[in-house]
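re the bet — no i am not wrong, look at it urself. input seq straight from the record:
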Amino acid sequence: MSNIFFDFDGTLVNSQKRLYNLFCTLCPQNSLSYIQYWELKRGRMLQQTMLKEIFNYSDEEINNFHEQYLSLIEAYQLMSMDNRVDGATELLKSLSSNHNLYLVTNRQKKFLVYEQLNDFGWLDLFKTVFVTERKNTKYDILKKLDNVSSNDYLISDTGEDIKTAQLMGINSIAVTWGVLNEEILKTYNPNYIARFVNDIKKIIAE
């Protein structure tokens, strides 16, 4: 049985509404629509660049924004805005019968990860849940595992996770419905690109 490591936000969970609403709260002068904001983000524009170039924030204002953002990004009242990616439940149930599934997330609050997994009906589908709590990197956690092989997969919507898979010597599957668009994801040289959730199952079955 191969191991399949899943990222959480952007890969299995659509958290875009939560992140956009938090941006609007912390940047009251925001004039970007939801679609405009995510077009910029998916094109790899950093928030600090957005704040500086579009809203003329000073470095101090950007630092203050960043601190508030990190402190509120997992606020309990915002988490209800998250939704399961369409088809994610069926994918996880299908893969869990023949593979070891792991969740690896950079979330800060471990108890909220478990609560959300339970609400989505996913908790029992994962062999282990790893939460960095922003104290470690995903690579720091995964490199300690002794059962990782070149037949394993890391599935994510971020370039950083593709790099982690490369360091681990495992396969990376980049999903195009998350924080980065396909053009940007390709610059990180993932092993595979998944444009639809069902593509993941097809790739792993190859």
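see?? Residues 59-72 form the longest helix (14 residues). told u. also The mean pLDDT is 96. so pay up
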